């Protein structure tokens, strides 16, 4: 029974990744750089301790870039989708990674083995029975009071690294996909 449930969940996750993250990137009609910038922005914001407000942050980036530097525009929908990399299921390990990285960067590693305590505290903060806005406020205050600066500082290298890797990966993926599609179309025309 558990194996069947695991397979079902795995199948759903694969479908979500395929249909919500990969296919929109591959099917985008804009230049590859435009779409790759979307992945870059989405991943940079996803890899910050701002779950719950990541989509509004991406929207704000999109508005600012659209008016300040239109040549560096990006696909808002694709960027919004890529913020889902950090979600309720990935939150605890990603945030713990940020915390450990931040403590090391700030020169005060402290106890780096306390993941279970970290996950329990995070779960308790998220389990508060409140409205959405109130829950976001409680959650943000709890993060700042408990882990604060180390978590935010520790997210910076991961945000930059994942954004850059996402940009390079998606740019290469789009170019290869379009070249392959172009070669197939040329072969079909030559056969006729």
SS content category? mainly alpha
Strand fraction band? under 5%
| Average pLDDT, all residues | 82
Fraction of helical residues: over 70%
Mind summarizing the main beta sheet?
A: none
Rg (C-alpha, Å): 20 Å
The count of domains is 1
General description of the model:
By secondary structure, this protein is mainly α. The protein contains eight helices and no strands. The chain has one domain. Helix 2 runs parallel beside helix 4, helix 2 packs antiparallel against helix 8 and helix 5 packs across helix 8. The model has no long low-confidence stretch (mean pLDDT about 80).
SSE blueprint:
Blueprint: H1 2-27, H2 32-46, H3 54-68, H4 76-82, H5 91-105, H6 115-126, H7 132-146, H8 148-191
Quick recap:
The chain has 192 residues and is mainly alpha-helical.
What features would you highlight for this structure?
192 residues; mainly alpha; 8 helices; 78% helix; globular
